[in-house]
Task: inverse folding
């Protein structure tokens, strides 16, 4: 089963996936490894106005043998999303037997979790850390005094000319 959600933030969908994984598996009696949620970072519009979080579209692709659980799934999502959206639209896509297949590589775990996720360590040079940054307290315009005075005269002269014209 694949559940696509449009119009909600990805963090809301991640939480929803965690909360509804077991109840959906219990309702459908399906293998929990066959249930996936996905969220699309898209915007929903109606007449040119952003409708995200006002409208949520849920597209559920599932075996046609599970058609009888549609109302149960609708009720589950409506209850779970009552604080995240106003209107919820559902589309059920019933799949024929043998219309979905999976290839699993046996050399890898089936899912990423806290125990097997890749930890990327970044080595930071000592020069790059905030502790080693020295703030310059000197005059950054040292040796440029003549140029600064010339610029000040030009700006002042330009302002005076504009006032005379007006």
Result:
């Amino acid at each position: 089963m694949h559940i696509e959600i449009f119009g909600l933030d990805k963090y809301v969908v991640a939480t929803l996936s965690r909360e509804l994984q077991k109840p959906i598996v219990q309702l459908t009696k399906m293998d929990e490894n066959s249930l996936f949620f996905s969220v699309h970072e898209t915007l929903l519009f109606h007449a040119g106005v952003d409708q995200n979080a006002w409208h949520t579209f849920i597209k559920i692709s599932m075996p046609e043998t599970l058609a009888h659980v549609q109302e149960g799934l609708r009720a589950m999502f409506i209850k779970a999303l009552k604080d995240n959206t106003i209107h919820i639209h559902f589309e059920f896509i019933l799949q024929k037997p043998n219309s979905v297949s999976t290839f699993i590589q046996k050399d890898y775990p089936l899912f990423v979790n806290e125990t097997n996720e890749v930890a990327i360590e970044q080595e930071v040079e000592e020069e790059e850390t905030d502790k080693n940054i020295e703030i310059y307290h000197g005059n950054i315009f040292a040796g440029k005094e003549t140029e600064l005075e010339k610029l000040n005269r030009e700006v002042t002269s330009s302002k005076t000319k504009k006032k005379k014209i007006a």
Remarks:
- The two ends are 74 Å apart (CA to CA).
